[in-house]
Amino acid sequence: MSGGCKPFGFLTAISFATLLCTALLSSCSFAPRYERPEVDLPKQWRAVDMGATPLNTDWWVRFNDPVLTAMVEEALKNNLDLAQSMGKIESAAAQAGVGSAALAPLISGNASAKSESASERAPNLTAPYDVSGLARAPSVYQGTLNAAWELDFWGRLRNQYTMLSDILMNTVISHEALRLSIAGQTAQTYFSLLALDMQFDTAKRTLKSREEAFRIYTARYKQGDITELDWQRAKAEVETARAQVHTSAISVDRAEAALAVLLGRPPRDIIERHMARGKGIASLPAPPVLPAGLPSELLLRRPDIRAAEYSIMATNANIGVARAQFFPTISLTGALGTLATGVGSLFSSASGTWSYGVTGSVPILDFGRNWYNLKDAEAQKKIAIAVYRKTVQAAFEDIRTALTAQREADNVLRSMRVQVASLRRSTDIARLQYDNGYTDYLTVLDSERQLFSAELQLATALQNRLNSVVSVCMALGGGWRDVGASPTIPIIDKEKLLHEATTDKTSTFK
């Protein structure tokens, strides 16, 4: 009976130790108290009327171009940078799961079957094996259930789990920042393609016009009505337009290839598939200009800023891990099993074995290893704080330049349209005066060159106006809404995410 009570005593001791340690484990943590770094925000960004026409997170829909909308959605689904980012999320989630598992006891089992021969000439052998009745080559069978649990008195494991969970959140929110970037790159590359299409059409139209004019000038030159100098200048202008046609063709092809890569299309499609177009760049609407100031919370919600803050939180928790390394590591251990020379008697009560105890280790002389590790953890936090503040600075820089660009883009475009219209009229007048002998051909060439350059710049101005809208949306983290409205960017439930990461082993975060 006493042999049967020993396993029960082992389990009772383990249960008592578990209850005792559970009460002690939550009492200590060496991680510094986290506080968000302060930044000096401009006063005009604290309380501003947002107006009545907000943009949504899916800001690309506002351009009313189904082709653009389809492209952005395709990029968000198939872009390989996003696929790589999803893999990083899954890896970070798995690491957070490892950190969560480290808080619980480690239970393992092992079994062995061993047979070995002993020497008859061994020291201290009292009698030969054939006399003593002992087996010279016995077989031993053993099965053991082991348990070990590190007591987290100093919060090392808890801070390590906190650090890994913050890294997970940083990875998730960085993925959202990348999605915003990919959407913006797709839209701006599409606008670039449309602008290049417009420049390509302008170059071809100009080449055709100049070729027709050159045929007339050639006939007049042969008749002696114009000089060779005028004829050679006209010929040079034809080749100038022709060169621009070839240059535009190269640029259009390059933009199509870049857009295909952003959309995640396979190599065959990159080479063979033609890129669809929607509306012409002059037909795309520009959403309304933002007010001069916005609440600072709109910028602080940017995914890159939120991700940077989680980096600070992770390094803050890592300081707690480093500080705990200076203190003893204490673990409860236990084993419950059987040992016998025959399989048939392996599960009898007489074959039972058990053990339990406490193990501990304390650093005595590590030549500064833990001290330098702590200093490194503190330095990493300083780096993370600097990155956070730099990210906030970059956010305000982005929104300032984007707001100015959007506000002035319409003025630039308006001036360019007036300029093109005036140059077209002046070119017609110059040609008419030249044909009637009132001016020289150099005046015609000057007017044509200015017109050609202005028409190419008009396409760029249209592109810049649309790009400025994209820049504002990206600077804000994806558009804006009225004060008091629900945010269009989904709020990530950290507790739910960490729960899924540590309990749902099949989750892929898709």
Low-confidence stretches: 1-14, 46-55, 482-494, 505-510
Largest sheet composition:
4 strands, antiparallel
Q: Considering the protein shown, what is the CATH homologous superfamily?
A: Outer membrane efflux proteins (OEP)
Number of domains: 1
Mean pLDDT: 81
- Proportion of strand residues: 5-15%
Pattern of helices and strands: HHHEHEHHHHHEEHHH
User: Spatial order of the strands in the main sheet?
Assistant: 1-2-3-4
The chain-level structural class is: alpha+beta
CATH first level: Mainly Alpha
Rg, please? 38 Å
Which CATH architecture would you pick?
Up-down Bundle
End-to-end separation:
57 Å
What is the helix content? 55-70%
Number of discrete helical segments? 12
Topology, number of strands: 4
Tell me the CATH topology: Outer membrane efflux proteins (OEP)
Apparent shape: elongated
Fold and architecture overview:
- This protein is an alpha+beta fold and 510 residues long.
- The protein has a single domain (30-104, 139-497), classed as Outer membrane efflux proteins (OEP).
- It is built from 12 helices and 4 strands; from the N terminus they run H-H-H-E-H-E-H-H-H-H-H-E-E-H-H-H.
- A 4-stranded antiparallel sheet has the order 1-2-3-4, covered by helices on one side.
- Helix 2 (66-78) packs across helix 5.
- Residues 1-14, 46-55, 482-494 and 505-510 have low confidence and may be disordered.
